[in-house]
Amino acid sequence: MSKQRKTIDSELAAWINKQRVFFVATAPLSPTGHINASPKGGEAFRMLGPLEVAYQDYTGSGAETAAHLRENGRIMIMFCAFDGPPKIVRLHGHGTVITPSDDRFPEYSSRFPANPGTRAFVHVAVHRVSDSCGYSVPLYDFRSHRDTLDRWAANKGSEKLKSYRAANNQNSIDGLPAFNSDA
Hints:
It is a single chain. The chain is α+β, with helices and mostly antiparallel strands. The protein is built from 4 helices and 8 strands; from the N terminus they run βαββββαββαβα. Helix content is 23%, strand content 33%. Strands 1, 2, 3, 4, 5, 6, 7 and 8 form an 8-stranded antiparallel beta sheet that branches.
């Protein structure tokens, strides 16, 4: 049974900041649309307040999260303890995509490590915080973060990344608008 919390208190924030991976889930309004779940890692997550978080969104092969957020804003971020005591934390909220053309982009850029593949930031106004046991989550030993995406983005350079995003990130697999060609 999950336990609902009023906010992300300092103890929970410290636990979240120790996790090396998190998962983002979104869905379109259409009942025939594709639900999306994406793993994220690295230094991409930030606590901004007791009910406010953000993460750095890197260039990828798809743009489902951005498309779903533009359509309806619904998002859930999940953390699982893969070491230490078992625990799962879910943050439900309303997400907003902050692209380079947004006036807030420089402010968000200053909160995260520079990364050549950054295409946006996702800001989440959290309205539900819950945790549950996580007894069935397996134990894993962390070795390191992968640098493959970072190297890929650095090798492409900014102009080829813009072209890649224009070709691959403008729409979701269901045809919903995701990123403009300026992202």
